[in-house]
Amino acid sequence: MIDCDPAILTELERTAVQAGETAAEYIRRSSDKVLEIDYKGATDLVTEVDHNSEQIITDRIRTVYPHHQILAEESGWSALKSDYLWVIDPLDGTTNFVHGYPSYAVSIGIFFQRQPVVAVIVELPAGNTYTASVGKGAFCNGQSISVSRTTEMRKSLLVTGFGYHHGRKWEKNMGLFKHLTDITQGVRRLGAAAVDLAHVASGKADGFWEYDLHPWDTAAGLLLVTEAGGCISRFDGSAYSIFDDQILASNGLLHNILQEELERENQVNSRFGDG
Ligand code: IPD
Ligand code: CA
Ligand code: CA
Question: Quick check: 234 pLDDT over 90?
Answer without folding.
Answer: yes
